[in-house]
Specification:
six-stranded antiparallel beta sheet, Jelly Rolls, mainly beta, 10 strands
Length: 104
């Protein structure tokens, strides 16, 4: 079985827009641990026109915005994704691919 992507979005980071990283497309899990202090960590994807747009939690119309250590599932097409950190410090954020079971 092929290993799915594990991308670092932030490593001991503070407030600001993270650099975009190449997401291969498909289901993923955003994993975040940080010192929040009222802040949040959001997940965005770049549109073909270059605009950064919020990604929604899988099966939801609510944009991803974690306010405490945790995880959230998402689905995104291939392209650039990034973490956007507001107020939080010591942020570690990762996007981990979730394999699709095609056995049948």
């Amino acid at each position: 079985m092929a290993r799915r992507a594990q991308l670092t979005l932030a490593l001991n980071a503070g407030a600001g827009n993270g650099a975009g990283v190449d997401w291969p497309g498909g289901r993923g899990l955003l994993m975040v641990d940080a010192t929040f202090g009222g802040g949040n960590v959001a997940l965005q994807q770049q549109s073909p026109s270059g605009a950064w747009l919020p990604l929604n939690a899988e099966g939801s119309t609510t944009a991803i915005s974690l306010t405490a250590n945790g995880t959230v599932n998402f689905v995104a097409p291939a392209g650039q994704i990034r973490a956007v950190i507001t107020t939080a410090t010591a942020v570690n954020a990762y996007a981990v691919g979730i394999p699709t079971n095609n056995a049948g």
